[in-house]
């Protein structure tokens, strides 16, 4: 049986508060923007890539993919970006990943999809070190309607939305693969470490 096709949604629409209000996805690590690290890892694993962004839209478009700003004002959070992107997703499955996780593994989609299908779930969430990586998840496109209802009721927290779904955790042993870069200090530390 052919595996269901996947649309990747790279979430780059946040304020970047801990990074000093700069656009995190465009901060440079080892010569290329963080979002480019994510694209290089994820694009070969999926059938379509969409980018959720609210600033520097032309810079993101230079990556060669559709760039979709939130339909709601004032940076309402990753769920708003996900909901907007799902309007445009062409495939039955979607993957969401943040733009600040430059070390994602080459088997991320395969393992999440395997977990989703074998676990008869609606959503597969990555986990490492006993902790769910809530924004790194793979689910079915039909979840968009319920997500819209959740947002309309004032819901903003990713975990709260996921807790209302038939979700399964998929564990990865290496915690470094989900390391995200939130601050200038973390960016500098990642720049200077050679073991990633």
Automatic annotation (TrEMBL):
Mg(2+) binds at residue 100. GTP binds at residues 11-13, 24, 70, 100. Belongs to the MobA family. It comes from the Bacteria. It is found in: Cytoplasm. Gene3D superfamilies: Spore Coat Polysaccharide Biosynthesis Protein SpsA, Chain A. HAMAP family: MobA. InterPro entries: MobA-like_NTP_Trfase, Molybde_CF_guanTrfase, Nucleotide-diphossugar_trans. The gene is mobA. It catalyses: Mo-molybdopterin + GTP + H(+) = Mo-molybdopterin guanine dinucleotide + diphosphate. One of its GO terms (biological process) is bis(molybdopterin guanine dinucleotide)molybdenum biosynthetic process. Residues 8-159 form the MobA-like NTP transferase domain. Monomer. This is Molybdenum cofactor guanylyltransferase. One of its GO terms (cellular component) is cytoplasm. Pfam families: NTP_transf_3. Its EC number is 2.7.7.77. Keywords: Cytoplasm, GTP-binding, Magnesium, Metal-binding, Molybdenum cofactor biosynthesis, Nucleotide-binding, Nucleotidyltransferase, Transferase. It is an enzyme of class 2 (transferase). Its main location: cytoplasm. Transfers a GMP moiety from GTP to Mo-molybdopterin (Mo-MPT) cofactor (Moco or molybdenum cofactor) to form Mo-molybdopterin guanine dinucleotide (Mo-MGD) cofactor.
């Amino acid at each position: 049986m052919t595996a269901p096709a996947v649309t990747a949604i790279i979430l780059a629409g946040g304020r970047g508060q801990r990074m000093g209000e700069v656009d995190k996805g465009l901060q440079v690590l080892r010569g290329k923007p963080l979002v480019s690290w994510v694209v290089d890892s994820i694009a070969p694993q999926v059938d379509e890539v969409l980018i959720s962004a609210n600033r520097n839209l032309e810079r993101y478009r230079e990556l060669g993919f559709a760039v979709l700003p939130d339909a709601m004002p004032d940076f309402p959070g990753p769920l708003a970006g996900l909901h907007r992107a799902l309007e445009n997703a062409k495939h039955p499955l979607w993957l969401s990943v943040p733009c600040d996780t430059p070390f994602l593994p080459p088997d991320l989609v395969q393992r999440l999809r395997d977990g989703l299908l074998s676990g008869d779930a609606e959503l597969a969430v990555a986990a490492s070190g006993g902790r769910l990586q809530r924004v790194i998840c793979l689910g079915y496109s039909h979840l968009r309607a319920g997500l819209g209802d959740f947002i309309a009721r004032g819901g903003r927290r990713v975990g709260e939305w996921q807790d209302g779904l038939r979700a399964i955790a998929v564990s990865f042993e290496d915690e470094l693969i989900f390391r995200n870069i939130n601050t200038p200090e973390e960016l500098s530390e990642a720049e200077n470490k050679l073991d990633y």
